[in-house]
Design brief:
Mem_transp_PIN-like, transmembrane, Na+/solute_symporter_sf, single chain, Na+/H+ antiporter like fold, about 325 residues, globular, mainly alpha
Length: about 325
């Protein structure tokens, strides 16, 4: 019992600060200290500048190498691909117009902020570098799957491979990771002044991003949440991590890689699912409900899952 309490305490030390920062953002927004315009501008700053800086300098300075991480990356990609048809089958009883938002909410996680923050809390810069590489691979698949889903289920969406490839190539997070890998590969040496500046930018990323996510939460939506929203949240927080852990086990990943795989898989639904649902004619209300529910419940599921991993994969 004492051992389990120690491992659960470790799990809470990973997920708890993230949840509390989200809560602070929510409270500050309701108190009028974080305006909607500030949250919009800060979110753009994080996505376009500080998060790419965090990813670039962390990967560039870490000991993580793409060739060494291929089992983790392949396990993450295969597991994520498998969750899409499972989510599609789960969504079959829903109305046709709700399925795209349900499926995307059920498999698309908030890797760039919450997943990375959990990985950094649990394993420091080494875990963050692993998570960043895994995030890049899975994010590319997320973009392909999400656009394809809305193209199938929405009359407003017109699928275009050209546009999709442009979106992926212009994604600042993917660009930052690729540039970091290239810089490491060619042995580039950066001036200390540049590295220090990058560290300054990177250091504000996760706190600012988490405050913005918390400020954007609308808990009043929970009162209007449907069975579909709870079902999608349960799928995202329970089924997706389980599927990826099974694939990771088949790949015989070490304990840290398994934990990184779990933490990214257990991340709540990404805010991008709401944006795409609204833009491409899906059920944006359902998408918003899934985000709110999965974000609140992820503190419980991620903490419990990480504690169990620490017990069975010490």
């Amino acid at each position: 019992m004492e051992n389990f309490l120690a491992t659960f305490s470790f799990a809470l030390s990973v997920t708890g600060p993230i949840f509390l920062t989200l809560l602070i953002g929510y409270v500050l927004a309701r108190a009028g200290l974080l305006s909607e315009s500030f949250v919009d501008d800060a979110s753009k700053l994080v996505f376009l500048v500080t998060l790419p800086a965090l990813l670039f300098f962390n990967i560039f300075s870490s000991d993580a190498h793409l060739g060494d991480e291929w089992p983790l990356l392949l396990a993450g990609l295969i597991g994520t691909i498998l969750t899409v048809p499972l989510a599609w089958l789960t969504a079959r009883p829903l109305e046709h117009g709700d399925r795209s938002a349900f499926i995307q909410g059920a498999f698309r996680g908030n890797l760039g902020i919450i997943g990375l923050a959990w990985a950094a809390n649990a394993y420091g810069s080494a875990g963050l570098a692993q998570a960043a590489l895994l995030m890049a691979v899975i994010t590319i698949f997320y973009n392909v799957a999400a656009v394809a889903l809305f193209a199938v289920y929405s009359q407003k969406a017109k699928f275009s491979w050209g546009k999709l490839l442009k979106d992926i190539a212009r994604n600042p997070l993917i660009v930052a990771i690729v540039l970091a890998l290239v810089a490491k590969g060619v042995g580039l040496k950066l001036p200390q002044m540049v590295v220090q500046t990058g560290d300054y930018l990177a250091s504000v990323t996760l706190p600012l991003a988490l405050l913005c996510i918390g400020a954007s939460l609308d808990l009043s939506m929970l009162r209007r949440s449907s069975f579909g929203a709870f079902l999608a949240s349960g799928f995202k927080l329970l089924v997706v991590p389980l599927v990826l852990l099974v694939i990771g086990w088949l790949f015989r990943l070490d304990s840290q890689s398994m934990a990184i795989l779990f933490l990214l898989a257990a991340a709540p639904t990404a805010s991008a699912s709401f944006i795409m649902a609204r833009a491409l004619g899906g059920n944006s209300q359902l998408a918003a409900n899934i985000i709110a529910i999965s974000t609140l419940l992820s503190i419980v599921t991620a903490s419990a899952g990480l504690a169990l991993l620490k017990v069975y994969l010490p």
